[in-house]
């Protein structure tokens, strides 16, 4: 019994010593002071500020890679189809003309619908107008691949067809408007002078031709294009406004190439379709292309480059 009391006393002392050890200042967890917190926050802010440009460049690099891969694939596809189907294949680009010529398009669409069976006519008109509504909001960002005939067509009876749906560039990028805009008053001679002038920085605009729009059954409208013949070579065909036929132009070998410049865009339209009269908003201060695709006229090889206009 005596030994039991001693055991109880020792247990009491053990508890007291244990409690004392927790109460000693050396074993308490120290908290951060306000100054230490401010120092840490300042360091984090500095690191973030220094890394932001690198992150921005990383995002832009991803955009460049995405755009270049998309266009390289589509340009190569257009060229391969021209060779395999032995026909002319074009890449068409949507510009502001589909808005400015909307009244003429509507009247021509009504005329084109007369060749459609009566039971399908209303569906054709609704589909075509819906496509126009979508594409008018994608000026300088949409494109499609188009063949001037169908496999098996006779030379005198060609049936044009679209090889792809209308596609769009990734958000934040658009085709350079000046490259897509050929003035109605520009002549073949003036175009060739711009194309072959090595001393000026101005790029010759893409040529324009009439193509069925918005699908192969629709009326013809004039669009800028890049075309390939059955050999896989670039073709330059000039068509005057209100002219039926296009004439082939011979470009000197030194200038036998085409370029597609792209620039940054700040987003899509926010206005109603009927109010859209201008191109997508361009980021202010943009002086050089985000990317420029150069296509060799003979081999069709596509090279993504970045240089000033």
Topology (SSEs and partners):
Elements: H1 2-23, H2 34-85, E1 89-93, H3 97-100, H4 102-113, H5 118-135, E2 142-147, E3 161-162, E4 167-168, E5 173-175, H6 177-180, H7 188-195, E6 208-212, E7 220-228, E8 234-235, E9 237-238, E10 247-248, E11 257-264, E12 291-296, E13 302-305
Helix pairs in contact: 4-5
3D structure, described in words:
Helices cover 39% and strands 18% of the residues. The chain is of the alpha+beta class and 309 residues long. Strand 9 and strand 10 form a beta hairpin. Helix 4 packs antiparallel against helix 5. The longest helix has 52 residues. The N terminus is likely disordered.
Order of helices and strands: HHEHHHEEEEHHEEEEEEEE
Shape: globular
Strand residue percentage: 15-25%
Distance between the termini: 103 Å
Regarding quaternary structure, how should these chains be classified? Answer: single chain
* Sheet with the most strands, sense and barrel status: 7 strands, antiparallel
């Amino acid at each position: 019994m005596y030994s039991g009391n001693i055991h109880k006393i020792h247990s009491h002392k053990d508890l007291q010593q244990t409690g004392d050890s927790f109460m000693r200042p050396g074993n308490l967890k120290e908290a951060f002071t306000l100054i230490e917190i401010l120092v840490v926050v300042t360091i984090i802010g500095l690191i973030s500020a220094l890394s932001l440009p690198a992150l921005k460049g990383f995002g832009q690099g991803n955009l460049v890679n995405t755009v270049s891969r998309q266009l390289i694939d589509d340009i190569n596809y257009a060229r391969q189809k021209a060779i395999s189907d032995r026909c002319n294949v074009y890449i068409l680009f949507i510009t502001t003309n589909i808005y400015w010529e909307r009244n003429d398009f509507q009247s021509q669409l009504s005329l084109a619908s007369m060749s459609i069976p009566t039971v399908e006519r209303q569906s054709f008109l609704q589909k075509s107008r819906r496509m126009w509504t979508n594409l008018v909001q994608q000026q300088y960002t949409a494109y499609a691949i188009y063949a001037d005939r169908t496999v098996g067509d006779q030379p005198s009876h060609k049936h044009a067809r679209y090889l792809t749906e209308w596609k769009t560039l990734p958000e934040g990028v658009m085709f350079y408007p000046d490259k897509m805009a050929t003035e109605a008053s520009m002549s073949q001679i003036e175009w060739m002078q711009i194309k072959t002038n090595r001393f000026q920085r101005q790029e010759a605009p893409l040529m324009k031709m009439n193509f069925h729009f918005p699908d192969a059954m629709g009326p013809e409208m004039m669009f800028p294009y890049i075309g390939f013949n059955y050999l896989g070579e670039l073709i330059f065909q000039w068509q005057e406004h209100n002219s039926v036929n296009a004439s082939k132009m011979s470009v000197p070998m030194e200038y036998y190439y085409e370029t597609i410049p792209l620039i940054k865009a700040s987003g899509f339209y926010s206005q109603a379709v009927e109010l859209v009269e201008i191109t997508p908003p361009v980021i202010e201060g943009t002086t050089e292309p985000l990317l420029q695709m150069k296509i060799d006229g003979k081999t069709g090889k596509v090279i993504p480059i970045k240089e000033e206009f």
